[in-house]
Amino acid sequence: MVKVKQDLIRNRNVAFINSLANIRINLAIVNAIIIAIALGTKGTMVDYAIVAGYLLLSVANLCVSWIRDLAANKLRVLFLIVDPLITVYMIFRTGGIRSELYPFLFIPVLVSAIRFRYAGTMLCCSILTLILVGSSLINDIFSWRILLIKTGFLYLVGILSSVVIEQTYKVTEDVSDQLAKKNDELQRLNYHLTEVSASSDRGQILTETLRVIQANVDTPMAAMMIFDPRGELKIVYSFGWEDEWLHNYQNYPLSKYSLSLARILAFKKPLICSDIDKHTELIKTFEGTPVQSLFAFPLIIQQEVIGAIMITDVQVKTISEAEIQILTSIANQASIAIQNAISLNEEKKRADTDGLTGLYNRRYFNEKLEDLVYETMQDADSAMSLIMLDVDNFKKYNDTYGHPAGDRLLKKLARVISEVVREEDIVARYGGEEIAVILKKCHNELALEIAERIRSSVQQIRDLECPITVSVGVGTLPDHAKDSKTLLDFTDQSLYHAKHTGKNKVCCGVFS
Questions:
Q1: pLDDT score, position 2
Q2: Which of 241, 322, 334, 346 could be cross-linked to 209 through a Cys-Cys bond (beta carbons 3.0 to 4.6 Å apart)?
């Protein structure tokens, strides 16, 4: 943060110097014309030569780009010195303290106040006073009264300018501090939000978002909430919430029918409630919890509110506009991350599934089989099984009833098998009418039971052109194989044995 503050101050000073140089370029030609007018017919050839040169230089500064660039950048200090030197000289030549050019002395005083503050300003005023005195004595028009008045104005302008600029710098320092702090907070917030966006899992996104809130928002309690299929707003992740409070909230949860959520659902705007005692519905919802104030920010996916980030406190409190902006940004980024995760998962699912049956495809099956075989072989007490089944007489069914009927058969078969196997099992279309099932952590006895349930369930399908049956082969690792290839070979030969020994049966080995 210190470096950021230093950069801000450095940029401010550079911007000021550049703006001062540009102002000087625009005013120099006016200064030159007024000097020429003040000089009138009282000057010598040298005076007129100086004025003419100064006027030409000022015009060149204004009109010629490369000279203007020198005057505003590389040689700006030299050009800034030229103006007061010529002005002082012309004051000397046009009457000293009675010169019409006297007001131009305020310019170097202001520059000194800006650049050097009090000490430099006093030194500048003293030098200008000596110049006025010297020029008046030489011109023999000295007057103590006029001298005191005019030098008094110089010192007064110098002191007031120094005070104002000192205060301005203090304000600028405070603003620089605040900007540096804000920049640091935004960088930290941006880092955390990047972490949120990096995940492709909704649960991880929600937990990471909660961690971002904990790191960036001053609140004792926060929760990530998602609407369930019934429309109730459920707390899925939280910090600061005790189990009893979570249980009490679930008794009367907010829902899509809650009036309190109308602002979120209808307008997709944050719900700002500094005191829930003013809302009957919220009093009932948070009864038995210490929640006293509540601020909820919608999570929006494809224009639909899917949940909310809920910030709560145990006391009546307000929330600043800055905090609202931070939480809105967090909610927006979380929404984008969830949407990206959904899209990514949908793309992955399309890449991993069979277009006709909705089962996993062979590529995904091969990948998972390799992975699960490796995991199983690492654990001596573990086992996994493989089922391969084939529709009996499928070619005859296709030839008799047509390919659309065959496609309907495969879709129905896929649904029936998916309903019979366990939730953690992987069902894939291995090829044509052949389907494979990977049974995780499954010994041979259970695998045979599941295979028999599949065979029996398929035989009972009634809403097809005619009844169908399947032949099933079963293999288990490590009982019948030592790797994925031998497991596939054993199971496939078991299926082949079932088809060639009567069909509509489950076989495990026995290949003679």
A1: 44
A2: 334
Alpha carbon 60 to chain centroid distance? 50
CATH superfamily of 362-507: Reverse transcriptase/Diguanylate cyclase domain (3.30.70.270)
The pLDDT tens digits for 317-342 are: 998 888 888 888 888 888 888 888 87
The neighbouring-strand residues paired with 338 are none
Give, as one character, the DSSP assignment of residue 68: H
Q: If you average pLDDT over each of 20-24, 436-440, 480-484, which comes out highest?
A: 436-440
Q: Point out the least confidently predicted range of 96-100, 381-385, 480-484.
A: 96-100
Residue type, 134: G
Sign of torsion, CA 24 25 26 32?
A: positive
202-350: CATH number: 3.30.450.40
Among the listed residues 490, 222, 190, the one whose alpha carbon sits nearest the alpha carbon of residue 326: 190
- CA separation for the pair 427, 431 (Å, rounded): 12
Torsion 404-406-408-414 (CA) sign: negative
Q: Which residue has the tokens 């086992």?
A: 383
Buried b (16+ CB within 10 A) or exposed e, 176-203: beeebeeeeeeeebeebbebbbebeebe
Q: What residue spans in the chain does CATH classification 3.30.70.270 cover?
A: 362-507
Task: Provide CATH 3.30.450.40 ranges for the chain.
Answer: 202-350
